[in-house]
Design a protein that fits this description.
Elements lengths: L32 H11 L46 H22 L8 H14 L3 E2 L12 E4 L2 E3 L13 E10 L2 E10 L5 H19 L8 H13 L3 E2 L5 E2 L10 E2 L16 E4 L2 E3 L5 E3 L6 E3 L5 E3 L2 E5 L4 E3 L4
Antiparallel strand pairs: 1-4, 2-4, 3-12, 4-5, 6-10, 7-8, 9-14, 10-13, 11-12, 14-15
Helix pairs in contact: 2-3, 4-5
């Protein structure tokens, strides 16, 4: 499926040596940087934005000894084990309901603290303490070496942003990605929040992204292929002139953080696994104002839009039912 996007400068501009936002293939400094600078001067300094830059990452936080840990908590490496079934038992699903409810509570608590001036590291402290108060372990903490208890993805950061010393600014958007390990299972959810007053395009991006999640969940039906989910999401994003990130997808979840089951958020004909009652997985579309391509920071985690445009995400953990889907990550 080919999507046509309006050729206009994104809210957050690329670096001088990054590909130009116009899709020409040239470096930004050799293409639109001069024209964009002239346009920015016309509009005034209040409209000029700088891309997100990494701050200082504080040391990894500790978890009390009485909290049950996943197998990778100490080593950073999940234990290799036989492939787990995609369909969960009733007992596992019941535990996942409790873990999902706890994850949603941590997201609610941390999201309420979002405001101009707070650092993403301070948000990590709030989330970390909330996990522990609920008796859970932050699933991301030391997962393949990830250093923090949640992901904070600001503006053009698509996903896996590491909390650091950068303070949120009025007009930012930030995704908080929360996962808890509780009673031997994981619950995973995320939402994108406004920081102060944001511009209309960012508001529209966040609204459309939430709608994409809702349409993806509505497409979950037993007997249908997983590709239905991505089809519904991509159609809605394209209708609104936005794109769907392709490098990251939803995933199976349960007693393991990530299973082999993958949920693309764009239409992929090969995603032909048939959905069955008892399957548990996440739907977590990442939607960009510009193109779907991404690039990665040197930290090995942070993914940003290649054209510097803003990105938003919402996520729920689901179980397939006889009628459709039950959302597990709700309070």
């Amino acid at each position: 499926m080919t999507t046509q996007f309006a050729r206009q400068a994104p809210a957050v501009l690329p670096g001088p040596n990054d590909p130009c936002w116009c899709g020409s293939g040239s470096k930004y400094k050799k293409c639109h940087r001069g024209a964009d600078a002239v346009e920015a001067r016309k509009k005034g300094p209040e409209t000029q934005r700088r891309g997100v830059r990494p701050g200082i990452v504080s040391p990894r936080r500790s978890v009390p000894a009485h909290i049950r840990r996943p197998d990778y908590a100490e080593t950073g490496r999940p234990t290799r084990s036989p492939t787990l079934p995609d369909v969960q038992s009733a007992e596992v699903i019941e535990r996942m309901r409790r873990a999902g409810k706890a994850a949603a509570k941590v997201l609610e608590i941390t999201g309420a603290a979002v405001r101009p001036g707070i650092t993403t590291d301070e948000l990590d402290v709030i989330a970390h303490e909330a996990y522990i108060q609920l008796g859970g372990y932050p699933s991301t903490l030391n997962y393949h070496g990830y250093p923090k208890s949640l992901c904070t993805s600001v503006n053009e950061v698509i996903c896996h942003g590491i909390p650091d010393s950068r303070a949120l600014e009025d007009g930012d958007i930030v995704n908080l990605d929360i996962t808890i390990f509780l009673e031997g299972v994981h619950g995973d959810c995320s939402a994108t929040f406004f920081v102060g007053k944001v511009d209309p395009e960012s508001e529209r991006l966040v609204r459309v992204t939430r709608e994409c999640l809702e349409l993806g969940i509505a497409a979950v039906k037993p007997g249908r292929p997983i590709s239905d989910i991505g089809r519904a999401i991509e159609q809605h994003a394209a209708k609104n002139g936005m794109s769907v990130v392709r490098a990251y997808c939803g995933h199976g979840i349960g007693e393991r953080f990530h299973t082999s089951l993958q949920i693309p958020h764009y239409y992929e004909a090969d995603a032909n696994t048939i959905m069955k009652p008892g399957m548990t997985f996440t739907v977590e579309p990442m939607i960009n104002l510009g193109h779907w391509q991404h690039r990665s920071w040197d930290d090995g985690w942070t993914a940003v839009t290649a054209d510097g445009s803003r990105s938003a995400q919402f996520e729920h953990t689901l179980v397939v039912t006889e009628q459709g889907a039950e959302i597990l990550t709700v309070t």
